[in-house]
Amino acid sequence: MILSVAFVAGSLIFSDTVARTFDRLFASTSADVTVEPKEDIDEAVPSGQTPTVPAKLADRLAGVEGVARTRVDAAVENITVVDSKNDPVGATTGAPTIATNWYVTDRSPVELTSGHAPRGKDQALLDADTADKKDVKIGDTLTVLAAPGSFKVEVVGIVTFTTTNPGAALVFLDTPTAQRELLGDKDAATGISVDAAAGVSDTDLKRRVAAELGSGYDLKTADEQADSAASELGGFLDVIKYVMLGFAGIAVLVGIFLIVNTFSMLIAQRTRELGLLRALGADRRQVRRSVLTEAVLLGVVGSTVGLAAGIGLAVGLIELMGLFGMNLKSTEMAIGWGTPVASYVVGVGVTFVAAYLPARRAAHVSPMAALADAEIAGVGRPLKIRAVVGAVVGAAGAAALVGCATAEKTSSAASLLGLGLVLTLIATVIAGPLLVRPVIRVLGGAFPALFGSIGRMSQRNALRNPRRTGATAAALMVGLALVSGMAVASASMTKSFDEQIDKTLGADFVVQNSNFMPFSQEITEKVKDTEGAGLVVRQRFAPVKVSMPDGKSVETTAAGYDPRLDDVARVTYVAGGTTQALAPGNIAMQRDFARDHKARMGSKLSVEFPGGRKTELTVGALTDQPGAEGFGVEGGLFFGMKTVEEFVPGGQDSALYVNAGSGTGADTLRDRLEKTLDPYPQVQVRDQADYKELIREQIAVMLYLVYALLGLAIIIAVLGVINTLALSVVERTREIGLLRAIGLARRQLRRMIRLESVVIAVFGALLGLALGLVWGVAAQQVLALQGMTAFAIPWTTVVAVVIGSVVVGLAAALLPALRASRMNVLAAIAHE
């Protein structure tokens, strides 16, 4: 319980600290009013186009009543900066490298601490954090790779953050250079910053600016700009928060089994004590209340320790962010009132709920049965009730999974999958004790033959209390079910992607940014001019809003391609072909998307591009390609490159499909392409094998989280097995003493407990594997709706889990077995 509270408290404290820090940063650095281009269509996939406004708006707004001053902003993030050795100079942790124009205000997040301001086209400033990490000094030459092309600058000054460093790398140029080299237009700006005169509120200033400019621009006050920036940051914070809450959830779920088991065994050992209380007049409610009070006190202590551990965890996360370039201060840690409340609600609430069932059982024991040391946890009616409830819940879960497998829409299938996972997990936990006897008889069937009477006793000990064994194994089952289900899903995804790459990629090589961002035309021209490069087909993305025949307007991303796409890709058409798809005035789309929106061959569609540009396109082809809805790209839309260039001017290529020319081998061309692209370290040359490896690496990143959750679950499960065996040893003290008295050696006693622990751990592992494989099969059906139809079972992982469960059982039994073997025989026999 301490772990779960620590993760809850740590995640809340960390996210609150980051949010408050950045709220201050955004609020203190935003202009009173910011004028930006109006973006009517969201970019699910970057197009490389930088939206701009006319720079002359700054002069126009300077004359508006209430305006104190205006400034031109020219800032872009789609750049790469390299040093003289072509090594990247910038953030390597996912934060952007930002190039912007230099000007000084009382709200600047940085100050010039050495050197001088940039003057002219070949001078720049660099932030101190990046300069220190990359060993860049004043006088060094850097190359900036921007959308219009690359250019060299000399570092003439270093700036230092006066606020929190968000982890980005900052390069500052003078304003004319930034407009010309970053935007490709000396008369363009990415925005206009407007400061209010004394006595004029931001709201009033925004209203006056809007009256001057009309509705063609996006206007934000300082507060609105801060809220917008905070909401974008919120996505990053949510990832961290939900990951940590996921750890907390696993810790809570597995901890419940540990608490239930602990209280059940403690109550069983205090049977006589409870009987005496009942005999002296305590009623059932008082007995139940005494147990629940003990649980609440335990929850309070656990929550307090967990809250303290959570604060330490938050400090560790803050320090970790510092290693990644986000310099937060632990002295400014934010601990809101919600954090301790959530911590105690989780700690006390979960402990109370977990202890309720053992407390209820304790209250129902009669005084005479208790005085006779009758065992509280029988196997009669309660297990029959479990069988009925487990069967009902399991049937509902199975029905949900079957519905998931037969669903035709991804959203419906995913919902049914989630419901099925929850219900089948609950059913397995409920019915687990019913499976103990038949399964452990099989698992321990060879024990008598291999270990003689020791093996027989270990097997019977595991069978002695099915409820206890089931709860102990369930703690391990949860983690293994999760990891085996994800392993099946990931193996199926990997196999599906491999098959799709083999089926669709026909080019010798694909030239692409390592982060999949677009690159400049300069790189395209270099690739085309490479000796031995034959056919080069460009890919460029464009955000679009398409009015479909069913009356719905769909915002998605379409791709543009050069002619001869068939020579570098294998597109499966159900109507039309590449010639019709790429013809001027035409568009192609995925068959199911067209059917869902009542479009067909020849349908006329109104298509809107960024900047309000509109046209009408005809459906010229329908494909059977898998969709990419999970990446925010719906419909599989694509058209000719001329359409993209006409309606999205200034866009950049996202990929180049390259075939070797006549007389040039693939290996030779690869060497030449890599040499050509050596000055552009952000660009990679990939073939089919590289793409497959890339996909595997990306899927592996997802699995790392699952393996971390598994590790946490195993740690808690080991604690649960240790706790169960330790209490079981105490419970069987007299029995152990008698066994020792009739000749059982210490080594034999330790082996008996180890075998008992192993059979329980393997039982939990098998339950988890079986449940996880069922989940994996159902998850693969959801993936199939996205075109990932291959199915694979990672047998290596399955075998590793079984072997690992044996190791877990052995490790968990070490301390209890050692304690049992060191008991004094006479004292153990006299134990009551």
UniProtKB/TrEMBL annotation:
Residue ranges constituting the MacB-like periplasmic core domain according to the UniProt record: 1-210, 469-675
Record keywords, A-Z: Cell membrane, Membrane, Transmembrane, Transmembrane helix
Chain ranges of the ABC3 transporter permease C-terminal domain: 247-367, 709-825
A Pfam family matched in the record: FtsX
Localization terms from the record: Cell membrane
Main location (coarse class): membrane
Transmembrane segments: 242-268, 295-321, 341-359, 416-436, 470-493, 701-730, 755-778, 790-815
Taxonomy, superkingdom: Bacteria
Membrane topology designation: Multi-pass membrane protein
Database matches in PANTHER family: ABC TRANSPORTER PERMEASE YTRF, MEMBRANE COMPONENT OF TRANSPORTER-RELATED
Protein family per UniProt: Belongs to the ABC-4 integral membrane protein family.
Protein's name in the database: FtsX-like permease family protein
Organism ancestry: Bacteria, Bacillati, Actinomycetota, Actinomycetes, Kitasatosporales
